[in-house]
Write a structure and sequence with these properties.
Strand order of the largest sheet: 7-8-9-3-10-11
Largest sheet: 6 strands, mixed
Strand content: 35-45%
Helix content: 10-25%
Number of helices: 9
Order of helices and strands: EEEHEEEEHHHEHEHEEHHEEEEEEEEHEE
Structural class: alpha+beta
Shape: globular
Radius of gyration: 22 Å
Number of strands: 21
Length: about 375
């Protein structure tokens, strides 16, 4: 994905350069007004850049200098909007078939119906669908257009929490089974952690960062954009074992093993786990007779200088090539009493009960770390 575009609308100016692989799920992350929807509309051809170029999968969709501007219908892109935008006079089946491409698609109708659980909805009209059902139909219609890239612009924004979980399950399923590259727009970090491999952080129409989810979320300088209260590190992990006696699962991560509440997944499954800074404490010595199961030896890598009673401390756990970042949010007084400084050995303590289902994702990036089964 090679994008270098500029677009001005009123007082807003978008000036974006992105050069990254279009494999897997790439999240466009940023606050409202940062330019996320404008950018996906430019990719889709719904808006035209003032200048620049857009190249997806080696195909040039737009190049102002060369006079190339493919019409939207020739770009082979699927677009899922915040609202389903179904045709009210068509049944679910009619909406799905309307989106089918004319060429031989590797994705067939029955496959999409099965993947998205639409079999019992085919005869219904859109006004008889729930919000989650309508969004599943919209995703199916986009898939049946045989897209080279799927654009999803905050597809969960209009749904309640149960419907959001439902749609996230289906997006995970199509990501893992169909292997279609996805550009996923969101301002919700939990969605990014669960779905994305890479992320692009936008701010005021500019790119603030591009990289893997793990790398971007570990950067202290991005906290004003990624959110401080919910800030935390993202670790690639692998399910190492299950403990039936105590209803726990053990995840292999750089630096050791992480205990979490029992997961309904197979041993060997790759995961991504988010550990919030507010759920990590620090000690100068390994605790004895403590309720905390997760204790990681590490080294202080950075200490925030933000004002106030709290301070964020970056700790690198693991050694050699198997290292990972952990953020700890502690009081400034605690940092003073511990005498924390860069390069100092410490122990990071993480409560197992703090790691809920919203902390876990199954992005392909989790496979970047290969743990050892015991």
């Amino acid at each position: 994905m090679d994008i270098d575009v500029q677009r001005s609308v009123g007082d807003f100016s978008l000036d974006v350069q992105i050069d990254c692989a279009a494999d897997g799920v790439t999240a466009l992350f940023g606050r409202s007004g940062s330019g996320k929807t404008t950018l996906v509309n430019l990719i889709a051809g719904l808006e035209r850049p003032d200048r620049g170029r857009i190249v997806i999968g080696g195909t040039t969709l737009f190049d102002a200098a060369r006079g190339i501007d493919l019409p939207t219908e020739h770009r082979r892109l699927g677009y899922v909007f915040q609202d389903a935008r179904l045709f009210p006079h068509f049944s679910v089946e009619g909406n799905l078939r309307y989106g089918m491409g004319l060429d031989n698609s590797p994705i067939d109708f029955d496959q999409v119906v099965d993947l998205l659980g639409l079999g019992n909805l085919l005869a219904r009209r859109p006004y008889h669908l729930s919000g989650g059902e309508a969004q599943r139909v919209a995703i199916g219609r986009a898939l049946l257009a045989n897209p080279r890239l799927l654009l999803m612009d905050e597809p969960l924004a209009s749904l309640d929490a149960p419907r959001k979980d439902e749609i996230l399950d289906f997006i995970e399923r199509l990501r893992d089974r169909l292997k279609i590259p996805i550009v996923y727009v969101s301002h919700i970090m939990e969605e990014v952690i669960r779905l994305a491999d890479d992320m692009v952080v936008l701010s005021a129409g500019r790119v603030a960062a591009v990289g893997t989810v793990e790398d971007v979320t570990s950067r202290l300088d991005l906290r004003p954009l990624t959110g401080r209260y919910e800030a935390g590190a993202v670790l690639a992990a692998r399910v190492d074992a299950h403990d039936d006696e105590f209803d726990l699962s053990y995840l292999a991560v750089p630096g050791g093993r992480l205990s979490v509440s029992r997961l309904d997944v197979d041993v060997g499954t790759s995961l991504r786990v988010r550990i919030r800074a507010r759920d990590v404490s620090l000690a100068l010595e390994p605790p004895s007779r403590s309720s905390v199961l997760n204790v990681f030896a590490g080294t202080v890598a950075d200490i925030g200088d933000e004002p106030g009673a709290q301070v964020d401390v970056l700790v690198h756990i693991g050694d050699g090539d198997q290292t990972a970042p952990l953020w700890a949010r502690i009081t400034r007084k605690s940092a003073h009493l511990l005498g924390l400084k860069q390069g100092q050995p410490v122990y990071a303590l993480v409560k197992s009960v703090a790691l809920d289902r919203h902390s876990l994702g199954r992005g392909a990036a989790a496979g970047r770390f290969v743990g050892h089964h015991r």
